[in-house]
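Please go through the protein record below and see whether the fold suits the sequence. Record follows.
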Amino acid sequence: MLIDALEDYRLKIKEKHRFLSSLYSQYQKSGDVELLKDIERVKKEIAHLGFKLKLSLLEHLEEFKLMKKYYPQLLAEYAQDAYIGRYVRKRLWLLELAPLNERSALAAFNQVKEMRATLKKARAYLKLHSLKQFEERFPFLKGAKDREQAFKMLEEMDKRLILDGWRVIISSPLITAAVARYALLIQEFMKKRDGTRYLTKKRFFDKKIKKYSSLLTQVLLANPSYLRELQRKPPSPFLKRFVSQLRSVRVNERQWLREMAKRLESA
């Protein structure tokens, strides 16, 4: 169950943070530079656990939605937890998705693209002009105290727009094109990797394959019904192999409620 995964990752990440704190204390006392290597290693281990937790939330997305529906206070507690809260919060937007038809999705996606293009122009303009000139040229972007804050504001706005774009893609027929694109990129990088004898190039292509495989995995897990459709009728041999490795946990709502009641009673 999702609650078991959350508690398990919470415990593991908590232990890593405690160990990290002890390493920092040792370093402050001794100044031993070797401890810095251990500190960086533990930081990477925490980040890896956080990534696995976010993936687990995707795998248990149906359960995640039920937790919001029936146990919003419990979900809020996990979202504010000192050890796993930041990872839970990064997935909360998935609980707000509503299906979109293709026409509405295209309109919304084009709007996001246009706004991102405007922000790109605004960034370029700000690099060459004063804040006052920038606000005169882009009056809807007023509010920054200085140019540095203005750049940060533009960056945050762009991040929100990227997320808006993903909301549209995942909850609409546009997901088909995104999946096809990532599948094609992965296959192209695989061919390039297998076609070179240079180790540095192989490593470069392996990183690209890992990046796009991760993106494709997250897109598919974010839409369980679409994933199951692909698992039933895969459009290509590559996607057949790819989706066969993914796991989206099905949930019987009544049975889940009974199990949750038992878990919380025994907690």
